[in-house]
Amino acid sequence: MTAPLIIFFVLAALAVGGALSLIFQKHPIHSALSLIVVMVALAGLYLLLGAEFVAAVQIIVYGGAIMVLFVFVIMLLNAGIEEHTNFSKLAGFPGLLLAFALTGFIAATIARSTDTVQAASQPGNMASTRDLSTMIFKDFVYPFELTSFLILVAVLGAIVLAQREKA
Amino acid sequence: MNAFLYANAWLIITVVKVALLLFIVLTVNAYLTWFERKVVAHIQSRWGPHRVGPHGLLQPMADGLKFLFKEDPTPAGVDRFVYFLAPLLALALALTSIAIIPFGPDPLPWKILGQTIYLGILPPNVNIGILALFAITALGVYGVALAGWSSNSKYPLLGGLRSSAQMISYELALTLSVVGVLLIAGSFNLTEIINDQTSRYGILGWNIFPQFLGFICFFIAAVAETNRVPFDLPEAESELVAGFHTEYASFKFAMFFIAEYTSMITVSCLCAILFFGGWLSPFPATWTWTYYLPTVLLLPAGLWVIWDGLRYETIFGKVILPGIGAVMCILAIALVIFPGVNNFIQAPFWLLSKIFVFLFVYVWMRGTLPRLRYDQLMAFGWKMLLPVSIANVVVTSFAILRWGAIK
To answer: Roughly what angle, to the nearest 10 degrees, separates helices B9-43 and B250-275?
Structure first.
């Protein structure tokens, strides 16, 4: 086993373990912490793929800004331990089945397109930030601007909903 | 044995470097507390620590021992895992951020185990230097926020809440204020950012001139990120007892303390590197006589330490202080005798001097500025700092588009 492969498995285990812990933890703060572990492990995987810029942005935006907001809200509301409702067997069985189906579907897709997946992962071959920005701001500028417009609409909607009525 | 050493040379050297840097940073931290207490005391017309050793120089060691031997009670009802994780997280992230700083341009003149040794832990060709630093600072808030939450107490919870709100608000301005520098340098690499500021006229090439607004925004936001006066609302002792670390005692408290001082050092490094030319000398390269500046500063300082030490009655004063002074004098003379060594230390000398100036500014601010009110803090961050740093990015981009990069 080479060093990158070992690091990959460690990070992958961290990500999966964090995701499982996110679901099974009782307390919201513990769940949020698990999610941070997932984010940081994913950033490590990006770094392993040579996407250093994406890795740094992953930590800054998701690990830093967004998760801090999550933790802030949980602390502000002082949310306690979750109360579980009775687990519905009717909802559980098809849910489990569907989850397995989805996993199988994704795995099959990846297995069939081995070439493209391997083409993406070449350790040591760093994707430059310049190429990334050319792609976002030149080749895909309309989808990109459309997405930011969508987010702007969402922000406006949130402000309108949160605004207090002027009595 | 020898083959093993050579095969793993990179790993071994990195571990040694990390250990050395940790030792230096922790020692500097300890004496930074002494420096801060002394300077704040003099600002307030007091003497500051002066009982333990001459000029209170042994005070940091006394403090360290006290932190180690104090009782360390865990309050009832804390979330144990998070309560223990928080100080660890704060300290680990603060210390990690120092690893990204380069301390000099040239490798050591000789190779060790066949490896070129650079000053600094990361090799100089890492392209995401500044981004990696921001990533680490972005995670740094969890130490404070989680400490406040897990303590199961009202004041720490308020401190943690304030801290996370403050960090989210100032993180944006912090990142945006650096964009101007990145546009000018065209790189995320800290070494390249410094080299880009090289100019025939020394100081005139530094980023502080085209990016003055950026520097002001950066420094204010960085002080807010490190939770220092006047932005120390998370621990505001007049309102929240001690804020987020109220329930922490003994060495767990010391870990928060060390983390705070380490982030001060990191921010000072960043200010020096991004805006003040890093290790570049402020004088034009043709003024070779400025190379003797370290000697000129070191020799009188050494003589003064000898003279000062001999006045004391204690062993520490009579023996150790003159010893330190003698070493300083010998170093100063050695720098004159060996021009190679003198040339090599120029870069670290300037970088360390600049870092020291910023550390002094930190302490100076603590001694003179009052704390902001919470709503003032938020209004300032969102309505003043953020628009100004965005304007700075826009103006810089247009200037570079119109006239091209400055150099």
So the answer is: 100
Q: Which of A25, A71, A74, A128 to mutate to test the interface with B (most CBs of B within 10 A)?
A: A71
Could you tell me the two tokens for B360? 């002094």
Of B81, B128, B141, the CB nearest to A56: B128
Give phi and psi for B246, each to the nearest 5: -60, -40
pLDDT digits (tens, 9 = 90+) for B5-41: 777 777 888 888 888 888 999 889 988 989 998 998 9
Tens-digit pLDDT profile for residues B274-322: 888 888 888 877 777 777 788 888 888 888 888 887 787 777 777 778 8
Q: How far is CA A144 from CA A138, A151, A157, in A?
A: 10, 11, 20
Cross-strand partners of B112? B115
What count of CB pairs under 8 Å joins A to B? 77
Ramachandran angles phi, psi of B96, nearest 5°: -60, -35
Q: How far B241 CA sits from the closest chain A CA (Å)?
A: 19
Min distance A114 CA to chain B CA atoms (Å): 30
- The Cα–Cα gap between B352 and A110 comes to 52
**Which residues, at least 6 apart from B279, have a Cβ–Cβ distance to it below 8 Å?**
B103, B104, B105, B194, B346, B347, B348, B350, B351
DSSP annotation of B115: B
Q: Is B354 exposed, middle or buried (0-12, 13-18, 19+ CB in 10 A)?
A: buried
| B167 touching A (Cβ < 8 Å) | yes
Contact call for A56 and B146, based on CB within 8 A:
no
- Give CA separation, B229 vs A50, B4, B9, B243, in Å: 40, 50, 44, 14
Task: Report the Cα B354 to chain-centroid distance in Å.
Answer: 11
Closest among B396, B358, B365, B392 to B173, alpha carbons compared: B392
Mean pLDDT of the residues in chain B: 83
- Residue A104, C-beta contacts closer than 8 angstroms, at least 6 positions apart: none
Query: What's the predicted TM-score (pTM) here?
Result: 0.83
Averaged pLDDT for residues A130-142: 82
Q: How far apart are CA A60 and CA B176, in angstroms?
A: 13
ipTM of the assembly? 0.76
Question: Do B341 and B94 form a contact (C-beta atoms < 8 A)?
Answer: no
